[in-house]
Amino acid sequence: MSDLTIAPHERGVIRLFALDMRPEEAKFLREPGAAAQVLGVDELDPEQFDIFPVADLEDLGLYGYLNEGCGVSEDQLDRTRLKAFEGWVMVLRSAAFQGHPANLSLDPRVRLLGLFTEEATNWTGGPIETESAKPFSAPQSTPADNEPRHLGSSVIALLILIVVGGALWLIL
Predict the structure, then answer these.
(1) Are strands 13-19 and 88-93 parallel, antiparallel or unpaired?
(2) Model confidence pLDDT, tens digit, residues 130-150
(3) What pTM was estimated for this model as a whole?
């Protein structure tokens, strides 16, 4: 698969693009539909890509942004190359394509700098060894008395009888 081909339901991939254009043009890509147009796709989720000048990252730098901010492991990143890069970039996450396949046809002013994968969460775990995890380890409750209690209903019925009886006594 090419770096410019997005597989259906792709997850956890981050593409870093250099934007070789004037700052005004790069800022304009933040407008709805503009980034999708320079990438040659129909639509992008605006919450899933960032466009900014590397200088805005100050001491964090592009390396820190990708490593600490995006969860890209250190072994995928070339600190020297990322530190040397200046200008505007677009960081595009797979989720921007909303699970749809795509073939990117880049504007000549957009150049792919790198393709990275986010560190995935390891959901595996060993067996739980605690006493409370064993079957039937919960404290046993005493059996409930199965006789229904109608005390409340009886009291209400008695009060109704008294009120009705009193009303009849007053009427007669």
Answers:
(1) antiparallel
(2) 888 788 777 777 666 666 666
(3) 0.67
